[in-house]
Amino acid sequence: MDTRTTATTTATTQDARFLTEANSVATVNARMGSEVSPRMKLVMSAVVEHLHALTKEIEPTHDEWQQAIEFLTAVGHKCTDWRQEFILLSDILGVSMLVEIINSRRPSGATENTVLGPFYVPAAPRYENGKNICLDGKGDRLIVRGKVTDLQGKPIAGALVDVWQTNNDGFYDVQQKDIQPDWNLRGVFAAEQDGTYWYRSTKPRFYPIPDDGPVGQLLGQLDRHPNRAAHIHFIVSAPGYDPVITHIFPDDCRYLDEDTVFGVRETLIAKFQEVRSTDDATKLGLQDLDERLPYYFVNWDFVLTPSAM
Ligand code: BEZ
Ligand code: FE
Question: What is the pLDDT of residue 5?
Fold first, then answer.
């Protein structure tokens, strides 16, 4: 008989005394005391069940198990106040994105969430609409404009649009503190009475996640590249509404289908249009903005849902 098929059956009084291959899950879970909270019980029972199933499926050698322990130890050692290698690991395994999706199920038409990422900095400068947040002048000029509304299309005046992105070299300001101006490519804008927000920036480009640690080595062993599809990050919030943590992705990025953290969603892909002439600008309703040609333009609306009571 293949003993592995009985792994999750309840241990009898007799075989729960000592752990065997057949009773391992039930034996470990039976050790939990009576004071365990129902949620803890559910979570840890499932962790044990899946870990044992994984171990029985893989049947690791001692050397392989040692390598796994050393890998996780290296992940821990790489963590500092500003570097969280465990989150990076969860990101490249798709778990961060899954947690995000599970925790932000919204009606169709509402803006979808994606991963926050490690480079959000709270309390970015508040700017008037129209401000250019690209303080290092690098890259292709970009205008981002749109509305913040509810599901019925009603404008949400005063909604805050908090934005951040890398510069044209593919780094966030906080990764290059002595190179980029403070708060480069970050800012918070408030939607006007009709829900409109707009600002100037630079067209985002793809960039690698920090890959100089054990997670980068793992990506190499998996024959995977470290690149994120080009994107702009947003947190859009307003009193009484569920805050949206999201990105938009230019539709011409070659990494759209292979974002290393699985953050791309179909509904977040945006057309970044090139504006080469005053005619182009007029067609897009941009004639009054007085921006130097050529530049890119993206029109992007955010749709918020009421916060859960
Ligand atoms: C980011 O988009 O900034 C990011 C997300 C996950 C891991 C690393 C970077
Ligand atoms: Fe990012």
Answer: 39
Query: Is the beta carbon of 209 within 6 A of some atom in ligand 1?
Result: yes
Q: What b/e string do you get for 46-64 counting C-beta neighbours within 10 Å, with b at 16 or more?
A: eebbeebeeeeeeeeeeee
- The reported pLDDT for the residue numbered 51 is 98
Asked if the structure places residue 81 within a domain, the reply is no
pLDDT in tens, 160-190: 999 999 999 999 999 999 999 999 999 999 9
Residue 14 banded pLDDT, cuts 50, 70, 90: low
Q: Which ligand is nearest to the CA of 164?
A: 2
Residue 118 Cβ contacting ligand 1 at under 6 Å: yes
Residues near ion ligand 2 (CB < 5 Å) are: 117
**Binding site membership of 247 for ligand 1 (Cβ less than 6 Å):** no
Q: Are residues 49 and 169 in the same domain?
A: no
Domain boundary among 37, 59, 81: 59
Q: What atom of ligand 1 comes closest to residue 210's alpha carbon?
A: 8
214's CB contacts (< 8 A; 6+ apart) are: 71, 74, 75, 78, 85, 89
Span 233-247, pLDDT tens digits: 999 999 999 999 999
Instruction: Tell me, using a 6 A CB cutoff, whether residue 208 lines ligand 1.
Output: no
- Does 79 fall in a domain? no
Check pLDDT > 70 for residue 12: no
Cα dihedral 41, 42, 48, 53, rounded to 10, equals 160
Q: Which residue(s) pair with 199 in the sheet?
A: 144
